[in-house]
Amino acid sequence: MDATRTIVETVGRLRQRRTAPLVLELDLTEGLSEGPPADPVSALLSMRKTRLAEVLSGLRRARKDPRVTALIVRIGGNPLGLGTVQELRTAVVKLRAAGKRTVAFAETFGEFGAGTVPYYLASAFERVYLQPSGDVGLTGVALEQRFLRDALAKAGVRYQVGQRHEYKTAANTFTQNHMTDAHRESAGRIAESVTEQIVAGVAEGRGLDPKRVRELIDQGPFIGSEAVEAGLVDELKYRDEVYAETVEDGAHLLYVSRYAKSALSGRLPHPGAATVALVHGSGMIRLGRSGRSPLGGGGAMGSDTICAALRSARRDEKVKAIVFRVDSPGGSYVASDAIWREVVLARRAGKPVIVSMGDVAASGGYFVSMAADVIVAQPGTLTGSIGVFGGKPVVGELLGKLGVVTESVAEGANAGMFSPSTAFSDDQWERVNAWLDRIYDDFVGKVAQGRDLTKERAHELARGRVWTGADARAAGLADELGGLEDALSLARRRAGLPDDTPVRTYPRMHPLERLRPPESSEDKSAALARVRLEAWGPLARMAGQLGLPAYGPLVLPGHWTIR
After folding, report:
1. Three-class DSSP category at 119
2. Cα 104 from Cα 61, distance rounded (Å)
3. How many of the other CB atoms lie within 10 Å of CB of 537?
4. Which of 152, 278, 415, 520 lies 20 to 30 Å from 352, alpha-carbon distance?
5. For residue 405, what are the contacts with CB-CB under 8 A and spacing of at least 6?
């Protein structure tokens, strides 16, 4: 009897939970992650991070779910990129419009530090709460760069770098001791554009006049009581007080990611059903497989992995459209060109390709995007940087100071051309410049082709300049402003698919796939790009629920950070 009673009570609790009001919860203190893990290290490091796509999917579903009454988001900890913040703000605004309560809570928006971007996110919520000891570091946007040329010269190191053209400033930290005019102009416009977006968002979210928001930015940072008085924060409360006020009696508290996964549980696409492929490309672009970046800070976008994913999606008859999510500051020209080719082939196969840009899709990140049918960017996405630079550090003097003697034996006039021990000769420098000219000409030509521009106009927009997504759209380098959900909706419409058409994520591979030896290079490529859903079933679903590579702050070419 006791066992029967326990079963009945358990079933009763489960039924009550299914009908109880839901309060969704999102903890951003660990940050968010973008695409699927590219290697075991990435998977391990991202286990505690929530997937951005899951959050967006969950909030989209919650808008129409009568059980969902509220959303609580804890902001703080790891910084989020501006593009990611704008994705979240849009989702929150739509949730508010659907009649759901939205609550933001933070211990502090910058503890004796800048907190402009975190507060910008919070301003989209109906209610903003701050711990009584917290601050609001609404101080504006500053782009700071350090120049190492003179310090390196004292150590006996100098850089030989060529660039195309004056706005391609990524190497300036090593070759200059100040901002060039072009560098300052580009950085100034980025700061201005980002500030315009933040001011407009805070003004709309908090019901303030934009001029007043500008004044408040100049007056910040604020201690808690000042923030309340200025209308930036609603009340000073501790976490327990916020949750007690928001979570009604009988309501069930549930993480957004768990809510999103519960909707998809057991609902893998039917083997014959039409799908939209979502291909994730994150990190520095390199030849070979995706994985950890050798420079640290996250994953790397490998051309083998991404090309295989695009190729697999192109050849799959069930895939009717492709969304290519790009979050990359660039990298290898050859690897970028290989990925560009697969985008072109997918379009030729009659499958719409929609690019969704994340925090940054610049240089090589723009190269892999520019052939798409439609480019969707956030207003704060950093994109463009259509140009190239290349060269090497020359450390011979430094080695001499350290007592290191370098000798070499070579056959061929240019056999030691890329050695850092000696500078380029005049003839070798000519070869470097010819290489730079060829790459730049190819890049600009493909921009003109993909974006339906004259080559002269493409060059005007190129020259290595970085644009915000808002400015890129105005210039014709992007088509629409929006996020991943907008890109998926657009892909479905382009392919004539229903709004609820499922999405299949690429690249992902269950570890057991690695145990089966490939039969050919084509077979190997396919294994890189897909999961055998029919064969692995629940295991594949588990693999698809792994976390994603770490997502850091918004890093601009030239090592700028907006916080």
Report:
1. helix
2. 20
3. 11
4. 520
5. 399
Identity (one letter) of the amino acid at 295? L
Whether residue 22 contacts residue 254, with contact meaning beta carbons closer than 8 Å, is answered with yes
* Helix or strand holding residue 333 (H, E): helix 333-348
Closest CA to 80 of 43, 106, 42: 106
Q: CA 279 to CA 36: how far, in whole Å?
A: 9
Q: How many CB atoms lie within 10 A of CB 558?
A: 20
The stretches of 22-178 forming alpha helices (DSSP H) are 40-45, 52-62, 82-97, 116-122, 149-155, 172-175
* pTM of the complete model beyond 0.90: no
For residue 121, pLDDT over 50 is answered with yes
Closest Cα to residue 281, out of 484, 520, 34?
34
Alpha carbon of residue 332 to chain centroid: 18
Structure tokens that stand for 411 in this block: 């056959």
pLDDT at 549: 28
Give CA separation, 117 vs 80, 114, 535, 559, in Å. Answer: 8, 8, 44, 17
Mean predicted lDDT score pLDDT of the chain: 85
Torsion sign across C-alpha atoms 38, 39, 40, 42: negative
Report the share of the chain in percent with pLDDT over 70: 81
Distance CA 531, CA 537 (A): 9
Contact 197, 379 (CB under 8 A): yes
Task: 76-79: list long-range contacts, CB under 8 Å, 24+ apart.
Answer: 76/28, 76/29, 76/106, 76/107, 76/108, 76/109, 76/118, 77/28, 77/29, 77/30, 77/31, 78/28, 78/29, 78/30, 78/31, 78/551, 78/552, 79/31, 79/117, 79/118, 79/552, 79/553, 79/554, 79/563
**Secondary structure class of 377 (helix, strand, coil):** strand
Is cis: bond before 511, omega within 30 of 0?
no
| Separation between Cα atoms, residue 378 and residue 356, nearest integer Å | 9
SS3 511: helix
| Alpha-carbon gap, residue 168 to 464, rounded angstroms | 4
- What whole-number distance in Å separates Cα of residue 278 and Cα of residue 36? 11
DSSP-derived letter for residue 331 is B
> What does the block give as tokens for 210?
């934009």
| Residue partners of 78: CB distance under 8 A and separation at least 6 | 28, 29, 30, 31, 551, 552
| Cis ω before 507 (30° cut-off from 0) | yes
Q: Give the Cα separation of 251 and 328 in Å (integer).
A: 41
Query: Residues 399-452: pLDDT tens digits?
Result: 999 999 988 898 898 898 999 999 999 999 999 999 999 999 999 999 999 999
Q: Is a pLDDT exceeding 60 seen at residue 263?
A: yes
The more confident residue out of 200 and 518 is 200
